[in-house]
Amino acid sequence: MGRAAHEPYDLAGKILAVEAGGGLGGLEQADAAERACGKLRQSLVHVLGSDATQLLVKYALSKTAGEFPFLQDVEVDRDCRFRGLRDKVEKRGSGEVRDGLVMMLAKGIGLLNDLIGEDLVCLLLGKAWPEIFSPDTGS
Amino acid sequence: MSQMRRVQIRRLSTGVPGLDEVLGDGLPEYSFNLVAGGPGTGKTILVHQFVFTNASTERPALYITVVGEPPLKMLRYQQQFNFFDPRKVETAVHFVNLEQEVLDKGLDEVYAAIARMAEETKPGIVVVDSFRTVMRAAKEIDGEMTLQGFAQRLATFLTGWRATTFLVGEHAKDEVERNPVFTVADGIFWLYQSVERNSVVRKLQVMKLRGQASVPGLHTFRISGDGITVFPRISRPPGAVARTFPCRRLSAGVAGLDEMMGGGVPEGDVALVAGPSGSGKSLVGSAFIAAGVRQGERGIIVAFEEFPGEFTDRAKCLGVDLADMVARGDLKLIYLRPLDLSVDETFYEIGQAVGAMEAKRVVIDSVSGFELALAPTFREEFRESLYRLASQLSSLGITLLITAEIVERFDELRFSPHLISFLADDIILLRYVEIRGKLRKVIAVIKMRGSEHSEELKVLSITSQGMVVGESLGEYEGIIGAMPCLRQEVRQPVRPLLNAQEALVFETLVGLGQGQLSELSLATGLQRRPLSYAIDRLVALKRITRAVEEGRTVYRPSPRI
User: Fold this and answer.
1) Which one, of B495, B499, B511, lies nearest residue B536 by Cα?
2) Helix, strand, or coil (residue B107)
3) Which of A52, A115, A124 sits opposite B90 (nearest CB)?
4) Of A73, A74, A78, A82, which is closest to residue A32 (Cα–Cα)?
């Protein structure tokens, strides 16, 4: 597994793209991010527990909100669904929304990497997005 | 009636070095085990080591974390150990967190959740960590299922699933009597940790193991990057053989010492070399190893006082090239100086080296350093432990040489400050004595169990070519008291009033019966003038007679003498 392929930001970009399925609008990106967090939760919750998984997404959101203010006041529920995100992205450019959401996902992946190591993170995320982590994709 | 066929219980290797031996050849498959102990004793490490050794896609492990140690942290820290294989996570080892909500609903729900997880993953190994948390929850909730019922159902269910199970928990010793889980468990492993002065000592006890004989007692263990290593209490090891007598004699490697020992060190003996600092004990040990290597016998030196480099350098200066032996694989130099050792750990190290090298000779240098390297708690039982260690090595046919430093007290003969001379088959004593104004080393063989040996004290010289046993100090007495002096009969002439030359002439004449001046000169080696003086005085003292017979002067001892 090449380290470069799993740089959190690149990985987050790939995940968001997969979940967006080609949709480029802000709302489509927001929905894609929510689906990504849902899948992330599904992969992590049985190992880390609900609390830790929710905290991870909250941390990512809070770390990104400084740079991307549209993420401020967005809340995360226990199932890692966003409350208020769709309203916030409506008046934002799709490029900014995409960048903010990729950054948020990258922060979450980065934290996970720091805590349990990249190998384990790849194993866990690989279950959710096999298309990204399969050897055929070069990851 | 045909013979009954008993069920064969397969045993799983735990992956914990030393533990299989303690358990009696591994852990019974499908057993229901409890791993107990205080915080930080290594319970989770022990179980992880077992899990990562045994889990595979065919025999997956289900690791259920229950609040106690947050799974995030557990994964973070456990992967620091070398046994942790990230590739096995989620393929062979499935970590599952049991949520607080489940615990809050009581034991029925906990049982149902575990059963559901087991049915999903079909595990061959199940771990519940920490089970203590489950029990605590059970106490707080008045559920329908009692703890005993829960434990029994869980044990039956998981055994039915052919799972080897570990319940991990912080338990107090007094729970053993009243906690039903201890009754249900097939195996109970208790881990301890104690601190004494600056040393931490970890111990493991197999309190219960159904269906097989485990080694009783407390076994020390150490946690390193490889995980846990258990050092079984020394017992008679596999491969132990009874000694046969008479034994083969092994050369001690010191010129002249073999003769003093009646032919060398008997194979399988424990030889103690005692002496003050700098008297050559370590060199005797090195020479003993070198002699073995010359005969194709590999050796081990366990050094407690010097770093390996210092040890080999010093030996080389004195004619023994240990570094070369190490390089050729004929010698292993084990350096142990951590100050929290157990005797069992020391033996484990030696045992591993003996097994790997098929060594026949072992030197422990020195017993004083060994004692210092032990954690304080083990010093109390030092003699007993050393006895076990010596017995172990001896039973493997290994000849053990132990050096012991003694502080010289010249009013008594001591062989060791540790009162360990009882365990030595052979004792060699080195001492300093002053002879004619020079400090000399002397060597004596004090004891050879069941064998004759020299009773002499001999000069020991250390040269750049090695050690050499020199002349006997038979003319001296008082050597043990460090005040040697010539014995009376050596110091004083045999004949009172005679000086040495006169005594020599007189004794020669007694031997010859009679003689002329020329014959006496030849026999005594004395020149004519001193010989004449001696003879004149002997005649004057009437010790000898002078007679002229046929023109020749003949001397004879006086008839009255």
Assistant:
1) B499
2) helix
3) A124
4) A82
Global pTM reads 0.71
Q: Are the beta carbons of B289 and B299 closer than 8 angstroms? A: yes
What's the confidence (pLDDT) of residue A139?
A: 46
Contact A49 B96 (CB under 8 A): no
Cα–Cα distance measured from residue B441 to residue B454, given in angstroms and rounded to the nearest whole number: 17
- Joined together, the tokens standing for residue B75 give 């994964």
Provide the chain B residues 89-128 that lie in CB contact (below 8 A) with chain A.
Answer: 89-91, 95-97, 99
**Cα separation, A135 vs A121, whole angstroms:** 16
d(C-alpha B264, C-alpha A76), whole Å:
83
pLDDT tens digits, one per residue of B10-29: 999 999 999 999 999 999 99
Cβ-based interface (< 8 Å): residues of A facing B:
45-50, 52, 115-117, 119-120, 123-124, 127
Q: Please give the order of strands across the beta sheet that includes B187-196.
A: B93-97, B61-65, B125-129, B164-169, B32-37, B187-196, B199-209, B218-224, B227-231
What pLDDT shows up at residue A4? 43
How does pLDDT run across B332-357, given as a tens digit for each residue? 999 876 667 777 888 888 888 888 99
- For residue A52, give the nearest of A41, A63, A62, A61 by alpha carbon: A41
Contact B332, B357 (CB under 8 A): yes
Facing residue for B86 by CB, picked from A115, A117, A127:
A117
